[in-house]
Amino acid sequence: MFRLTALALVSLTASVASAADFPLTDKNTTITFVGAKPEGTHSGGFTTVTGTASASDNNPTNLQITLDIDMNSLYSDNPKLTNHLKSPDFFGVKSNPKAKFVAAKIEKSGDVYKITGNLTMIGKTNEVVIPAKIAIIEGGLSLTSDFIIDRTQWGMVYGKGQIDDNVKLSVRVKTK
Amino acid sequence: MPPFEVMLTMLLHHVLPALGVSATVTAAVSFACGVKHSPLAAALGLSTGAGLVLWLNHTWTLVPGDSPWNWLPWLALAALWIGRWARFLDVHSRGLLRAATAVAVAWITIPAETRQEHAWLAPAFAALVFVQWTLLERVADEQTDGSVPFCLALIFLVAGFVLIHASIARLMDVSVALAAALVGVAGVGWWRRLDTGGVVPAVAVMLPGLLLTGKFQTFDEEIPWYGYALPALTPLLLAEALPIHHWPRLARFALMLAAILIPLGVAVHLALRAGPLVFE
């Protein structure tokens, strides 16, 4: 009887350990961006992000990621520019206060992983495929990704021809 | 001052096309259909001049996403044609149609949560659209010298100045395109002594609509609410031209300009207090 109970406990512990949940917060997740125009670049990011990442068997290809971004938390290297980026010229934050990313599929691609997911912002959802380095070790998730999106795909067409359509995004997650 | 390249781009992409198209269309329609149909010529001139520029520059959508504010240009266009139709009705039916349009514009444009938060806003907006429409159409009917669209162009320019200081260039672009198109209509109106009242319904919707959108979409809190309200209310001062319609043309025009320059000057001052524009 004692053996059976011990076995059940061990198997329960193992199943809990194999399906790890990683809460994503602004303490362990950073999202930054760099926008460019002929005269130079501006950088910024979002300070309030929430979400979850869960993986079974500590396998990155089984990761399920959901990330919500509070667009009001947008910041940049210039306060006046921050207000401009929040305005209807770019994100229209008062009408579109949230952005969301949901990963649909993660595949191994050489040394890195390829995350395919849906990015919703400014009321429009587009599929994005982003490269990422992912590691799940010692009960913690580490994810590093640098990629480029075309802002016009989300209807952000202001300044087309004067401001680059492509925006560099960097995501860093370190839960432990 | 904005850099030379920014001003040149604005001139080439917004001002000159809107002005050229509106003047050409107004002149062509007034020649083709006769001076009797000059309100139609003015309405077509404004809608094609400003509409083409907004479409070419991707500024037809005022706010990204599915915001109700985006209905504004469509409602202005609808008001133009409702205004055209209303001219054939008797005074009471015309008034009712204008009032119904103004109420519809207010309720469609202003998002539900904003209407709930500020219960007075939609009725006040509708009242302003209705009063400006009624008053300005009468002034334009009597002042067949292009002075009304010219003064309205000046008001739209100042509205654009306020909106760029609120860090919303998209709304400034719309204001400038409308100002340029109105100058085109005013030029032809002055030359051919046209009744340019056809532009009034669109102006009555767009001017307060753009400034209200700016006030509720900006993250720059430095411009006080009356910095937006002043340009929106300024067209009402053009009513002073009604009792002096027998004055010489230039004297009347000078008085109209003097009256609107005072509130517009205050609005410019309030916008400038928001701090310098960032262009780097």
User: Helicity range of the residues of chain A?
Assistant: 10-25%
Radius of gyration over C-alpha positions of chain B, nearest whole angstrom: 18 Å
Q: Note the beta-strand portion of chain A.
A: over 45%
Average pLDDT for all residues of chain B? 93
Gyration radius over CA of chain A: 19 Å
**How many strand segments of chain B?**
0
DSSP helical segment count of chain A? 2
Order of helices and strands of chain A: HEEEEEEHEEEEE
Strand content of chain B: under 5%
- Sheet with most strands of chain A: 11 strands, antiparallel
> Which pair has the most extensive contact?
A-B, 30 and 27 residues
- Approximate shape of chain B: globular
Break the fold down into its secondary structure elements and pairings.
The complex is a heterodimer of chains A (176) and B (280).
Chain A: H1 2-18, E1 19-24, E2 29-37, E3 40-46, E4 49-56, E5 64-70, E6 74-76, H2 79-86, E7 98-109, E8 112-121, E9 124-137, E10 140-150, E11 166-174
Antiparallel strand pairs in A: 1-4, 2-3, 2-11, 3-6, 4-5, 5-7, 7-8, 8-9, 9-10, 10-11
Chain B: H1 4-33, H2 38-56, H3 72-86, H4 91-109, H5 112-117, H6 121-142, H7 147-165, H8 169-192, H9 200-217, H10 225-233, H11 249-272
